[in-house]
């Protein structure tokens, strides 16, 4: 592991806390120093002189739960510190919380309150009602003393509203918290190693494309016009955050139409469906709104045209993808899925061959397979216009440009997003590249020593997630943001008549 960019000081109030951290630190923990400040905001504030040489600061140790769902041994990573009428942000909290969760700990992220006394009863309830997860007595003054340096606060729960301090049951909680604090320590060392100044290179275009924006707006308008629930067959787009947001607003996502009540408002996802699905919806009297991306609809039309003249259609794509299933359903008996160059050799002879492409593939991957088809079938005809979506192409060009100047590339997108996975593959040819759903998926070891981080997002990933990653990186040290744009996107698609403004 690369050593910390600057000396790190881990502050604890009690000797037993300092001992747990020291025991848990790895032998190669670098220049991580553990100090005991003493208990309460007064001693913690007076420790400021001992912190002047530290490049990064951490407060850790035991804490009291305010939220009823927390249990002894649970870990709270502060997203902000509330102290003396001030709110002090902890931007790197998602990175630290994600790493602790991967270490097997039960982690929550949220506000941490600092008090000058042990909080009990009604006061504990009031702080919980204000949204704080836990309370301690030292984080506030040290967070204030950080003065722009990377700062984190991590508390391991000892007592809860149901079992407060000075009860026999808290002895068991203290033992459990001590063991947990030892497990926290190596993660704090990795967090310190990841701290330091860096540059973020933002690929542009990135995030939502016109088809994704249209599909999401269709569901939102359907909810507004028809009221919840609105049923959506499959994920409207392949992104966990988009799906959760729409679920919170009343959308119900189903795998098959037999899960939808007869006559209900039902949206088909952006990836398209086979004719058989449309027939089933009609038979059950569903009020269908079609959110299929117009570029996918174009591929369906081409498939029907080729099949109508008797061609065998080679569909370049990935098995199981909803777009592929929909296209193959348009022309059953006339289509063969081709996933790689080896599949081309298995195409039958004696029939005219044409080919189409899933819209979210890597451009060079699809081009290699198409070239192999043309070599074997010189008369093979492809689409009148490139099937691969303009947004997919633009994002791949942009991330390739960024990756060439990066130590590390982060691609924001869900694991089931084909276009996001292709971006990671394209970037990975020039630099280490990882697909992440958000800041919490970023491993701290990836960031150690990475001073230039390339950043993009798949066409189905919300732009706010990129902002969240930049903000989290900023919690590790100063970040200089530079955008590299390779294309402007002005395409907009019209909405279906069912949700147009009346």
TrEMBL record:
Reaction catalyzed: isopentenyl diphosphate + 2 oxidized [2Fe-2S]-[ferredoxin] + H2O = (2E)-4-hydroxy-3-methylbut-2-enyl diphosphate + 2 reduced [2Fe-2S]-[ferredoxin] + 2 H(+); dimethylallyl diphosphate + 2 oxidized [2Fe-2S]-[ferredoxin] + H2O = (2E)-4-hydroxy-3-methylbut-2-enyl diphosphate + 2 reduced [2Fe-2S]-[ferredoxin] + 2 H(+)
Positions with a binding annotation for (2E)-4-hydroxy-3-methylbut-2-enyl diphosphate: 238, 271, 321, 359, 417-419, 460
Biological source species: Microtetraspora malaysiensis
Keyword Cell membrane: no
EC number: 1.17.7.4
CDD domains (alphabetical): lytB_ispH
Ligand binding (dimethylallyl diphosphate): 238, 271, 321, 417-419, 460
NCBIfam families: ispH_lytB, PRK01045.1-4
Binding site residues for isopentenyl diphosphate: 238, 271, 321, 417-419, 460
Residue sites binding [4Fe-4S] cluster per the record: 209, 293, 389
Note accompanying the cofactor annotation: Binds 1 [4Fe-4S] cluster per subunit.
Active site positions: 323
Gene3D superfamilies: 3.40.50.11270, 4-hydroxy-3-methylbut-2-enyl diphosphate reductase, catalytic domain, Nucleoside phosphorylase domain
Family classification: Belongs to the IspH family.
Cofactor(s) this protein cannot do without: [4Fe-4S] cluster
Summary of the function given for this chain in its UniProt record: Catalyzes the conversion of 1-hydroxy-2-methyl-2-(E)-butenyl 4-diphosphate (HMBPP) into a mixture of isopentenyl diphosphate (IPP) and dimethylallyl diphosphate (DMAPP). Acts in the terminal step of the DOXP/MEP pathway for isoprenoid precursor biosynthesis.
Swiss-Prot/TrEMBL keywords: 4Fe-4S, Iron, Iron-sulfur, Isoprene biosynthesis, Metal-binding, Oxidoreductase
EC primary class: oxidoreductase
Any GO molecular function: 4-hydroxy-3-methylbut-2-enyl diphosphate reductase activity
Gene that encodes it: ispH
Nucleoside phosphorylase domain segment(s): 29-162
Name of this protein: 4-hydroxy-3-methylbut-2-enyl diphosphate reductase
Pfam families: LYTB, PNP_UDP_1
Pathway: Isoprenoid biosynthesis; dimethylallyl diphosphate biosynthesis; dimethylallyl diphosphate from (2E)-4-hydroxy-3-methylbutenyl diphosphate: step 1/1; Isoprenoid biosynthesis; isopentenyl diphosphate biosynthesis via DXP pathway; isopentenyl diphosphate from 1-deoxy-D-xylulose 5-phosphate: step 6/6
